Write the structure tokens for this entry.
Amino acid sequence: MDSVSIALIYAINKGYQVHPDAFAFLKSLDCDVEKIIKTIVDAKNKFKKKSPILIDDIKNVISSDVNRTMDDPLITNINSKPKSDSNLENYKILFDPTYKIKSENDKDFVKLFDSRYRKTLKILSIRSESRQIRKIKQIKDLRNKSRSSSLDNDNERGKFVDSVFLAGLIMSKRNRKNDVELIIDDTTGSIPVVCKTRDLIKEASSLVLDQMLMLEISLSKRNSNNFVIKDIIFPDIPEHVASKSGTESYVALISDLHVGSKYFMEKEFNDFLSWLSSEDEIVRKIKYVCIAGDIVDGIGIYPNQDKELIDMNINKQLSYAASLLEKIPKRMHVFLIPGNHDPGRRALPQTALTNLRDFQSLENFSIIGNPSVVELNKIKLLMFHGQSLDDVIATVPGLSYSKPVEAMKILLKSRHLSPIYGNRTPIAPESEDMLVIEDVPDIFHAGHVHMTEVGRYKGTLIVNSGAWQRQTKFQQTMGITPTPGICILVNLGNLQSFKKDFN
Ligand code: D5M
Ligand code: FE
Ligand code: ZN
């Protein structure tokens, strides 16, 4: 018996059907299909799901295998696979956390922050200064040595190194009368450092807690126990040019439907759906739709939510959402991630909405986790619901809900989707930090703040796709005026974008 048949029998014995397309796909792969099927079955068992195994389940397992490289035969096979769906060869799911999430009973955050440190250090390592990074313990030893030796003489020291680099996470930030003090932590200890010049103090204002950064500190200038910062180096994304796909095809970006809420703009959303089925010149070029979370309004998400719900049953909310979404033409491929209102755990990263996976009519959907990275016609698109934007906007002076792009830039600069730990955005103690922005995205798509805005940063197109929910009472009291009922379209050929308003 061949390994695909063995895998099929394994799945059936465990109570899982394999969709015929998925079966054909498995046969086209040249790899350990038994292992893939076992991983899927284990995950489905964990989430108590009895839905059939689909092509996307297989792709998710393949793309989440960290040990794989791009030259791996598995990946090549996906691309070379002949398939009737013309979109299939043009998209890939590069990252989906769904099958990597395991922290259910864990409370230990040490591994998570260690992973954040290591992954970001790797990002920083492309900078030449990174070769001069010293561990905090080494720096402290150097200081202690210099205190007790003649090296403390500044002239003497000039012959030696004048400054040193360190890299670590910001444990605290304190604005004082004339300076800003940061406490930086690496795997060997923590150290207080200060920003004294006006430029550095300004730069420090956009730093958020728990983000990782590299600092150049002076060894000659020192006040009391604090080292003085000479330069702040963000992990940041490099200036880059997206690879052009050539063909003019579009992706439609939306988020925050909030189906089930009495503020859900059903008429406008149906107008959007009808437009997608029209013969409009642009519509004919739309190949993909990305939906960045808050599909339903959920239940018990905020106090007194019941008074603002039409539907008090989460399954009804979901099936109603699915009945709307299935109107998206089958020739378009849809990527859908969850948000903080959707069922499942609240902490990041979030697994794919398993309940929606059960809707067989959504066969043109990739229902994936939050955050996920997909590649559409060679364009890398990072999808994130955007929960952490609340924390960034609340922490960084000068930011506001009406300009989410500025907050999204801070996430790109810190190369992390939710750097601040312990505020409003819960983060799960995974042993791997899946919120580090490892791949430089060509498009960064988020929602959550219910405000549409588009911007650009170092070659990345930043999109916040607003909402399909009218202003809620709560937002009114918070002074948040959303801009709902708008879809953002992006031409994947040149990354030009425009808004389509359904109001
Ligand atoms: O979030 C929609 C918007 O409303 C988002 O900008 C945050 C804001 N919001 C929602 N809940 C709160 C609370 N509790 N405090 C402050 N601001 C909030 P959504 O995820 O759609 O509810
Ligand atoms: Fe929302
Ligand atoms: Zn939200």
